[in-house]
Structure formats: C-alpha cells, structure tokens
Amino acid sequence: MKSMEALKRFNLPFFLLVILICAVVSLLVLKDIYTIANKSNYTEQLSSEDLDFSNEENIEEEEEAAPSSSPNQLIEFNQGSQNRCDVMNGKWVFNRSLETQYTDASCPYLDKQVSCVLNGRPDGDYLHWQWEMDDCYLSRFDGADALEKLRGKRLMFVGDSLQREQWQSFVCLVQYHVPPKLKSMKHGRSLSVFTAEEYNTSIEFYNAPFLIESNSDVFIIKDLRKRILRLDSISKHARHWMGVDILVFNTYVWWTTGFKLKTTWKSMKNNDGYEEMSVDVAYKLGLETWANWIDSNINPNKTRVFFTTISPTHIRSSEWNFNDRDVGNRCYNETQPVMEKGYIGFGTDKRIMRVVEDVVGRMKKVVSILNITQMSEYRKDGHASVYTEYGGKRKQKSDPKYADCIHWCLPGLPDVWNQLLYSFL
Ligand SMILES: *[C@@H]1O[C@H](CO)[C@@H](O)[C@H](O)[C@H]1NC(C)=O
Ligand SMILES: *[C@@H]1O[C@H](CO)[C@@H](O)[C@H](O)[C@H]1NC(C)=O
Ligand SMILES: *[C@@H]1O[C@H](CO)[C@@H](O)[C@H](O)[C@H]1NC(C)=O
Ligand SMILES: *[C@@H]1O[C@H](CO)[C@@H](O)[C@H](O)[C@H]1NC(C)=O
Ligand SMILES: *[C@@H]1O[C@H](CO)[C@@H](O)[C@H](O)[C@H]1NC(C)=O
Ligand SMILES: *[C@@H]1O[C@H](CO)[C@@H](O)[C@H](O)[C@H]1NC(C)=O
C-alpha cells in the first residue's frame, strides 16, 4: 500500500508533465497544419497556368537551329569592376511623370493572375516609383534597342512563376516594336516562346521551379509533403537550355515550405526511398547540380548566364506596420513602399542568399547576378494582392487573407528587374 501511494505521488507531476508535452506538441502540429494549409493555397496560385504544350516539335526544331554569335563583349561587364555598381544600394523615388511602357490592356501576353488593373486595382501610385541607386544610374529600358541587341539570338528565362513574370514583362517591354504579323507566341506546358521574326529572335520561358528535377515539375503535386526533389538530376530540363545565347535563372520560393524537404538521388535504387533535409542543405545540393551543369556545358564565348536572386514576399503585415495585430492582412491595401533603409522581411531566407553567393562564387563560368532582393523588399505595394484571378476568372475577393503577396502586378516591379538585365546586355 505504501509503495502504491509513493508511486501515485511520483506519478502526479509526471502525469502533468505528459499533459504539458502533449499540449506543446499539438500546438506545434496545429501551427504546422496552418502553415501547410496556407502554403498549399499559395502554391496553387504559383502554378495556376496549366498550358497546353501543343507545339513541342516546332520548339524542339528551333532549338536545334540555335544562333551562334559571340557575345564576348557582353561578359566583360561583370568582370571589369569599374563599371560595376551596387544595385542593392538605392531608394525608390516617387515620380508622377514616370509612365509605364505598356499596360495590361495593351500587352496581349500577360497572365490574368498578374494583370492587376484589368482585375480592378484602383490605386495607381505603385506604377510611378523609380529605382535610384546611390552610385550609378539605371538607364531606361529601350525596347527597340533591346531587340537590336537580341538580333539573331535566343533569350531564355528559366525557373518558377516569378521568373515567368520577368519573362512576360520582358516580352511586353519589347513586343510593341514588332508589327503584329511578325511576332508570335506559343505556349507550352514546359516551354513558352515569343518570336520576333523581323529580328530573328526569341524570348522564351522554361518552367523548372526547382531548376533540378522533381516529381512536381509539370503536373503539380498540391500536397507539399509528397513532393520529392531529385537533387542530382537536371538533364531532363537542361537539354532545353543547350544552345541558348542568354540564360536567366531563378529558384527560391518553392523550396520554402516551412518543413524538411524530401530528396532523392540517382544512387538510391529504390524509387520510393527519400531522405529528409533542411531547406538550406537541399538548396545547396540542388544549386550545385545546376552549377556543375553550367560549368561543364556552357561555352562562355556563346552563352551568357544570369541568376535572379530571391523575390521577396510580404505576407506578414505586422512586420512593417507595428500597430497591426491582424497578421491576416498581408500586403492588402498597401500603396507605399517600405521606407526603412535596408529593410529585409522574414520571407527572405538569408541562408539561401549566402548559398547562392557561395555556390556562384565558386563556379568556373561567369554568372552575372541580378540582385533584385533588396530593391524588391521595399515594394510591399507592388504585389497582385486581391487583384488577381480565382478559378480562372478575374475576380476580387476583397478579403485580405486571400491577397497574393508573392506575385507582382504587371506592369510593375519586374519591369525594373528587366531594366537591370537590359543594362547588362
Ligand atoms: C485554401 O483554399 C481553400 C479553398 O480552395 C479554402 O477552403 C481554405 O480555407 C484555404 N486555406 C487558407 C489557409 O487560406
Ligand atoms: C536567324 O538565326 C538563325 C540562328 O538562330 C540563323 O541560322 C539564321 O541564319 C538567321 N536568319 C537570318 C535571316 O538572319
Ligand atoms: C521623372 O520621370 C520623367 C519621365 O520618365 C523623367 O523625364 C524625369 O527626369 C524624372 N524625374 C526625376 C526627378 O528623375
Ligand atoms: C573562347 O574564345 C577565346 C578567345 O577567342 C578562345 O581562346 C577560347 O578557346 C574560346 N573558348 C571556347 C570554349 O571556345
Ligand atoms: C482598405 O482600404 C479601404 C479604402 O481605403 C478601407 O475602407 C478599408 O478599411 C481598408 N481595409 C483594411 C483591412 O485595412
Ligand atoms: C544580394 O544583395 C544582398 C543585399 O541586399 C546581399 O546580402 C546578397 O549577398 C546579394 N546576393 C548575391 C548573390 O550577391
């Protein structure tokens, strides 16, 4: 009897401890589930386009007949240091007389998802900010000149839906210099190609959200936990990059799931086998696979390579509006950039920034970095927000929690990314 009592006395705090642990664990799980629910909705938005790949043969043929010019002089920009200036050091200056070079009504190639004005965005200030760097001047994007520089060449953007936006922005910035009969657009599931016959040039987008292969490249797996990354496989995508004159890559947001990533290797015989890894470790291995491919396949006398850094997200309004207790407001209703110099939000994983710097820094071939992160961090006003599409329709849900604070309105910020790219051409 005595020993039973002793046991009970001992058990009571233990029992409480167990309850406490259970409570903490279930809180964590709940938080996780919330994150997954949230994320899976935004990934759905990331991949809303499910385009028909109807012209695969034509596109393949075009690739065989890749132009062979020598962009030697272009490479020097990055190597010669005196021309170089820090794009990240600058500020947004409001200029009412600054006009966009196209509208979502005048450019026929924009996804509904990012055509904010057509989707009903009423405020227009976000279109009149210009990026002024401390040490140098970013010249205006000249569409006719850009086409001239691309004459006889292929420019290809490779990556996720943000890269797709940069591609669409580029096409819209040049397309009105080409008469209707001399231009065409072919949409494919993986590859989409804008062609300007007169210039014998094509401006293309290749969809590869992780750059390396995964089981979610073409047919998107909604459940983030079922996605498996093949960290050492890239050739299925990379064969489409051969012979292109200017390649512009990005990859980031698909890696940031909030939990460990499932990864697999060629050497793993079992198809179902995978290893779980933290984001930064997996990202480093994936990016190294990409870097190795570039190093062993790119002829720098023919091809220039660019890498666009992290496009920031603005999902927590409490980060810039300290009075805002309602975390669900996201970037909804934002009409002004963040003014705090050097602002970096939580959505930008600094470990990933370092991985990019490190991996690219160790490459044998020159890769020019389009460092858009800092300038874009300020632009909480530039996102598609609620002026996007739902279920294929232009429709607003004026409910802050539906705001898309990952993608950007077009015209808008990605035009400035292209201004930067143009300055390298
Ligand atoms: C995700 O979308 C579904 C409908 O598509 C909705 O029922 C659910 O509430 C959304 N989840 C979040 C976290 O917004
Ligand atoms: C167009 O470019 C291709 C290479 O992409 C080249 O073979 C062809 O000669 C060019 N055509 C003209 C008319 O310049
Ligand atoms: C404002 O934009 C207009 C049109 O692009 C330009 O001519 C003018 O120089 C800009 N103002 C400043 C202060 O940069
Ligand atoms: C690139 O051009 C340089 C100078 O013209 C030449 O020495 C070098 O062998 C070329 N490299 C390749 C890979 O063709
Ligand atoms: C958004 O802005 C509108 C118009 O300024 C205002 O009526 C509304 O209350 C704002 N909503 C939020 C959630 O701040
Ligand atoms: C891009 O700029 C940020 C500063 O805004 C810097 O921390 C980062 O290392 C740069 N990235 C690369 C790849 O150079």
From TrEMBL:
Membrane topology value: Single-pass type II membrane protein
GO molecular function: O-acetyltransferase activity; xylan O-acetyltransferase activity
Short name of one Pfam family: PMR5N
Domain Trichome birefringence-like N-terminal positions: 84-136
UniProt keyword list: Golgi apparatus, Membrane, Signal-anchor, Transmembrane, Transmembrane helix
Residue intervals passing through the bilayer: 12-30
Main location: Golgi
Compositionally biased region (Acidic residues): 53-65
Domain Trichome birefringence-like C-terminal: 138-423
Protein's cellular compartments: Golgi apparatus membrane
Annotated spans, Disordered: 53-73
GO cellular component: Golgi apparatus; Golgi membrane
Family assignment from sequence similarity: Belongs to the PC-esterase family. TBL subfamily.
Identification of the protein by name: Trichome birefringence-like 28
